[in-house]
Predict the structure.
Amino acid sequence: MAKYIVLGAQWGDEGKGKIVDLLAGHMDLVVRFQGGANAGHTVIIGDQKYIMHLIPGGIVSGKAVNIIGNGCVVDPITFAEEMDYLQKKGIEVSPEKLVISAQAHMVTPMHKYLDRVLNKKIGTTGRGIGPAYTDKIQRTGIRLESILDGSFVERFKQNAQLYSQFATQLYGEKFINVDESIEQLKAAGERIKPFINDTIEIIADFVRRDADILYEGAQGTMLDVDHGTYPFVTSSSTTIGGAYTGGGVYIDFDKRIGLVKAYTTRVGEGPFPTELNDETGERLRKLGNEFGATTGRPRRCGWLDLKLVQRAQIINGFNYISLSKLSCLSGFKTIKAAVDYNAQGEPVYEEFPGWEEEIEGITDLELLPENARRYIDFIEQYLGVPIGLVSTGPDRNHVIFKEALW
Ligand code: IMO
Ligand code: MG
């Protein structure tokens, strides 16, 4: 039985939701190990669209047990909302299908407030991620286990007292209503309670039984707090190391799948060497419908940066690449990919003749235009890793399998 990990190779939004969903139908266990409700994983099945932020994408298939691991930060209020959203769409969210680590840290309304006040320059998703991880590392965080015995209320009050002084004195901003937040957290706490458990023992049990396991990364390598474009990053380890600390169990991954979008996008601030602030960028945004799944913000767009993906390859040891959104490149006369940077740090491009044909929904490699195949071959050779899967459209069935996944 196989062990998979899916990780973004760029700045997130590489189409992880789709491949997670493809795999999830074959999995016994799906694990999220970092991040929180800042992720935006879109799964499209027929005319149904599901957007999940916190709950693992494996929930849609209905087969797998899903884990929110100790490395995640969990907002009980958002969790309750997401559970309602999924249940309204007919997806079962029960403690049999979803387990949340007692060691995971809590995101509170105060963290969201601090995110807004402190992180304006980064352009965060506003989900309280950075401040919640700050509390964790600072050892003032609140673990979900404290929902079980109710001790979170006292801790929250203490933290609120500290941060309210800090916020009002330093930033002159009106603080949150603490009593109201406590009531909200208590109500959401009751709903999340049945899901809280020791996830490490559960994962270990699946490993012992040699089950099919998928680790679902959120964000991308360039948003990793260590390896990304610091300080314009998220606050967790989005790379393979994060899977070990954030899941808590050693796993020998058979397939380390790097998700690469056929061009590049980025939401929020920070460096982006191949960004296109022109009509071409505008066209990519339109063709790729590049608007944030979490915040609705227009994504910054540019050509593929292979030098950057190569870096992601070094960090994560991908042995299988999944190339997404190739169909959005139809109609460009010339397509470019950065293969290096010059002394000024500007990208050095390799140019490729484009293709006119619409390729959406193609499932056979042979049916792709020759120039599209050349582009794929070039990426494969540059990275030295097989592109096993090419996504040719939003639907679950819009895929070319060059190499079997299971
Ligand atoms: P998925 O899982 C794209 C970006 C934010 C911001 C920076 C820090 O859909 O790929 P945070 O709220 O995490 O403190 O914001 O990271 N960011 C993402 N960009 N996709 C994501 O997730 C992202 N999660 C965070 O825009 O620049
Ligand atoms: Mg996203």
